Amino acid sequence: MDRLPNLKALQAFRFAGEAESFKAAAERLHVTQAAISQQIKTLEEQLGVSLFNRRPREVALTAEGRQLLASISQGFSIIEQGVIQLTGDPTPTQLNISTLPSFASRWLVPRLGSFQNSAPELTVNLTPALHLASFEGDHLDLAIRFGKGHYPGLQSVKLFDEYLIPACHPSLIDNAVSLKQQISKMSLLTDDSPDLAEAWNQFKKISGINFHDDASKLQVNDSTLLVEAVLAAQGLSLLRFSLIYELLHRGQLICPLPVWIKSDFDYYLVAPPSHFKRKKVQDFERWLDSEFAITKTRWTDFTDSFSK
Predict the structure, then answer these.
(1) Does 1 map to a domain?
(2) What is the C-alpha separation between 79 and 77, in angstroms, rounded?
(3) Cα–Cα distance, 284 to 126 (Å, whole number)
(4) Cα–Cα distance between 21 and 185 in angstroms, integer?
């Protein structure tokens, strides 16, 4: 066959075949029954097979018709799904989010209740993951990622300029002893995040502290575990301000030195460009902006506190 049949004829056949009714297809496509009959007749002539057995008051698919219908229905379904992914929202009552476990537990989940109160019609599905989630398929609306904002094929919106600060449990500091001497003897707690490797070198240079070679070290693969280790008074760590500023405010952790280092990575809201047109995503983005505005204010208060 040199060329495919007319799409209108195939669509007419699809609806007529699924209902085994020319009348139902005509109503579905808002045309006359005679128009459906003519389109299918033209299709049969082009294919050289009979697709329907015609009876006085009904039509029934032939074996060839059933075979073609399976392929045609699947093809149109794929086309419709592609259009929905590009222009629509396949799950308008659900907001599906992927993000890092540390950000989910330390920042997002404690605040998420206020968003759900403002959008009670939405069910929020949160998937914490260390890997970068894929937007293939229609299950994921957006992701909150920690990186440099460059994600091929995706749109990214920066949420917060992240900083790393030294933090430890207050019980580890004795005000009667030299602060730098105490810090130099602390165990170092770190994770394998790429933004921390160079940050430690910068911290040592800025602070002027030479850590003992025999200082024990703990390395984990998630910032949540790192925060827990610091809360348990196991040593000193460089932690992301956004994840611990409430712990600092409550006195559960302290920043022993007026040192902070700009992280190479920041938090970004990431999704295909078409997803940002969805109302639920726009509502969530506005809510994130308002919540991060508070985090930014806390950062200003934190840095100002060392100049007083």
Answers:
(1) no
(2) 5
(3) 13
(4) 83
Query: To which residue do tokens 């957006």 refer?
Result: 142
Domain boundary among 60, 87, 114: 87
Question: Both 299 and 212 in a single domain?
Answer: no
Q: Order of strands, edge to edge, in the sheet holding 123-128?
A: 123-128, 94-99, 142-147, 266-271, 155-160
Q: Which of 87, 102, 121 is the last residue of a domain?
A: 87
Residue type, 117: N
pLDDT tens digits for range 54-98? 998 899 999 999 999 999 999 988 887 776 666 568 788 999 999
DSSP-H helix ranges across the chain: 7-19, 22-29, 33-47, 63-87, 101-103, 109-118, 179-184, 194-207, 223-231, 241-249, 279-305
Shared-domain flag, residues 141 and 82? no
pLDDT over 90, % of the chain:
69
State how far the Cα of 59 lies from the Cα of 53, in Å rounded to an integer.
Answer: 6
Residue 306 burial by CB count (10 A; 0-12/13-18/19+): exposed, middle or buried? exposed
pLDDT at 307 over 90: no
Residues 170 and 258 in one domain: yes
Full residue range of the structural domain in which residue 19 is found: 7-87
Which pLDDT band, with edges at 50, 70 and 90, does 1 fall under? Answer: low
In this structure, the answer to whether residues 173 and 251 fall within a common structural domain is yes
Our count of domains for the chain comes to: 3
**For 5-26, how does the pLDDT look when each residue is reduced to its tens digit (9 = 90+)?**
888 999 999 999 999 999 999 9
Residue 2 within a domain: no
The token duo for 275 is 């997803």
249 and 169 together in one domain: yes
Q: Which residue has the tokens 């208060």?
A: 301
Nearest Cα neighbor of 159 from 39, 275, 82, 271 is 271
